[in-house]
Fold this protein.
Amino acid sequence: MEENHRSLNGKVTSLSKEMSTLESVVDASNNDIAFIAEQVASVKTDTGSLQGKFNSVSNDVSDIQKDVSSNDRQIISRRSDVASLQASSSSAGQVVDDLEQSVITLNGNMSSVMRGVSIVNQQRFPPSQGKGHLVSNKFEFYPREMELIEQPTFLSRHAGSFRQKQRNLIVQQSELPQHQADFARKIARFHQK
């Protein structure tokens, strides 16, 4: 009987040790589970942050694509405008030269007409007949003289307009590299993200 009692005590002691070991294992497992839960929460947080960054990058990509498309259209339009203006400038230069030559010719014609008016006045209305007739006759020639005076002025304005178009062309040509540089900087900023 005593032997059985000692055997039972031994088994109880052994079982207690096993229970203690099992409790230690359970505690360790609980700690592992808690650590894993923290890691899962951290991963979820990181995932949310990465998703936000991804969305931001996606928006940036969309904006860059829009800018690229817009810049492409602007560059094509600018090149077309430059080509058109270059062609216009070439023909405008000839027109300006022709207009300036016309101004010179008309100025010469006006001088000739003025001399003709003076001669006619002297021939038809000598000074002995009085100044009144001379003024009256002069009035008949006045509209023609004014027309000749205004034509060079009108042509000069057109010549100035063509010169301004040529200057505008030079400005637009100088601005085109800047537009291309701006586009290149936008692309570079996108690649840095």
